């Protein structure tokens, strides 16, 4: 069965999926957005979506994009295309990737870019290295092992993977003050 392209005729996608808190997956591959002018709050409050693919979105005629991604608390992967640009830069409210394992920054999924704060990412997307592709929440890594640090308890948890070199440890890279570490948990197979 073939899917037909959905054309947004009234040029307004304002609040289309707003506050769809239980929505976990969204297939927008057949949306035709080249004439849309308003995407304010489009995904606002879609707090269960982790991956969002809007690589086919054409935002060339967009005038309004305020809080388009606001309150998307679980978002850790976003795919953007060549015809996408953030209008009014930071107003779109791309979230800060949350969770102790994330750095709060965005990076291309193949690690071919530097990592960027959400504000820097939105203002620079479409220039230099920030081109079409999939971007993910940057993860704290020691070698290939993700790690997280709980400041309240002083607990450093290192997850399964290959640690690599000691110089790349969280305390030797100045990401965690060694004096703050009270307990280290090795979670899973670590080599």
Q: What structural class do helix, strand and pairing data support?
A: mainly beta
Specify the number of helices.
1
Q: How much helicity do the residues have? A: under 10%
> What is the string of SSEs from the N terminus onward?
EEEEEHEEEEE
The end-to-end span amounts to 48 Å
Mean pLDDT: 91
Shape: elongated
Radius of gyration: 19 Å
- Strand fraction band? 25-35%
Written account of the structure:
A hairpin with a 4-residue loop joins strand 8 and strand 9. The mean pLDDT is 91. With 191 residues, the protein is mainly beta. The strands form three sheets. It has a four-stranded mixed sheet, with no helix packed on it. Strands 7-8-9-10 form a four-stranded mixed sheet, with no helix packed on it. Strands 1-2 form a two-stranded parallel ribbon. The protein has one helix at residues 118-124; strands spanning 6-7, 31-32, 51-54, 77-80, 102-108, 133-139, 141-142, 145-150, 155-161, 183-190.
